[in-house]
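Issue 218. Parser rejects a valid record. Input:
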Amino acid sequence: MKEHYYPGQRPLEGVELNLFSEEDLRLIHYATMQVFQNPGIQVSDAEARDIFRNAGCEVDDKAQVVKIPEYLVRRALMDAPSRFVLWGRDKKNNTPQEHLGKVNWTCFGTGVKMCNYEGPGKYKTVDSVEEDVATTAKLCDWADNIDYYSLAVSARDWAGKGAQDVHETFTPIMNTSKHYHHIDPVGEHVDYYKQMIDAYYGGDDEEARKKPIFSMLLCPTSPLELSVNACQVIIKGARYGIPVNVLSMAMSGGSSPVFRAGTLVTHNAEVLAGIVLAQLTVPGTPVWYGSSTTTFDLKRGTAPVGAPELGLISAAVGKLAQYYGLPSFVAGS
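Output the parser choked on:
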């Protein structure tokens, strides 16, 4: 039986964790607008810089820096939908995304290893392959408590052959009747992804745009950069009607300030910059306000996604997404 939780509803129908007041959220927003002016956002893709320039942003092509005025941010937030649907191959698996309301669940990713169990206490760890992608997609398709499939493991048998991400798109779509969320897309191959969606709809481009069975996740590079790949995923996703998840992976104490509020400003600037680019490309593009932002483990040099700090940051991210009227996506559970 699938169960959903409604955060903030009364009585006792979910969990609510308020770390910031409305005034706190406004201060984070104001600080983010200052970051957009000084130092600005590094935008490494020339096409994306042209989109920002044509919309009225100050652009330094030599430094690859874009300064985004607040009115463009507000316009983008007005254009971005507060609700959209993740379409499944089976309509019973359609999953609405809302800025207020249901909490949905997906699997974590993208792993590069599989544990093959050989008996009690015995297992062998091996590279994941395309067959494992299919198997995990089938498992998530079976699990009622998982709403849609995110790329759980990578097809390492295709690594270095130039088509790994394409196989990591085709194989999940073929093995789940739920919506597929690609979390390792390659910008220059988004055209191929779109052709798969078109093929599913028998070449009907209009239907494919209205009901995409596939979405994409991209990460800005912390601190404060939209890479060429991130920009191309955003731009092509917007043009093809594919929902895009702009997900920051800032590390508090590493690629962002050690204090939580400062990390949230860095995080907010990165995510909003990607969302603005999507809305400038095609107003109304479905987007998530995404986060896998956590702390930096100085002792081990890792980004622990199971750390308590991630939960605190994710709770704040959810509030920021609600503040902006956007569906949110956060790592961990």
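Fixed in the parser; the record now loads. The mean pLDDT is 91.
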